[in-house]
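A quick aside before the break. I want you to see a complete sequence-to-structure record at least once, exactly as it would be stored in a machine-readable document. Don't worry about memorizing anything.
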Amino acid sequence: MFESLYLKVLRYARHPHAPRYLAALSFAESAFFPVPPDVMLIPMALANPRAAWRLALLTTAASVLGGLLGYGIGYFALAAIEPWLQQWGYWEAYQTARDWFGRWGFWAVLVAGFSPIPYKVFTIAAGALAMNPLGFVLASFLGRGGRFFLVAGLIAWGGERLEQAIYRHVRTIGWASVALVAVAIALYLLLR
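That is the input. The structure line, written in tokens, reads:
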């Protein structure tokens, strides 16, 4: 089951339109979409390690542009989206992002590229707090770029050996992932 899914994902990752979809996902994730671009960047870099650096640059550029949309949402429409932030469970993360901005400003955005807090929360908070737009773009490019180039670099470094190793262990990886998701759901339901 997992072997065929893995091969299908790699086939989709080699699709000629896959970079467009990666750019669209990266853009959307920085402003409003919940799925991180890593879910596409990783298999695409794995399917074509020579293109890993180009894919990381594409992901970074689209993410920064999407971050500007998130900044605009925070700057112009925070009051309108506040109920959604609360409803979707982002309000606490938004408050944390605001606190980080109050303490560290530029550095908060830079670190946000690697943070477990969704990046869109930082882009919206940066706009809501009217962060310097040039500083925001620079910090976004460095933070997000650092993350995506690190991911792409590790995949490119592993290359074909990594792809074969994953394929050999894909069943174990798949069942471990299913178990982790089940545990996470159980913990969420127990701690609610």
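Two observations worth writing down. Residues 2-191 form one domain. Residues 19 and 55 are 7 Å apart (CA to CA). We'll return to this after the break.
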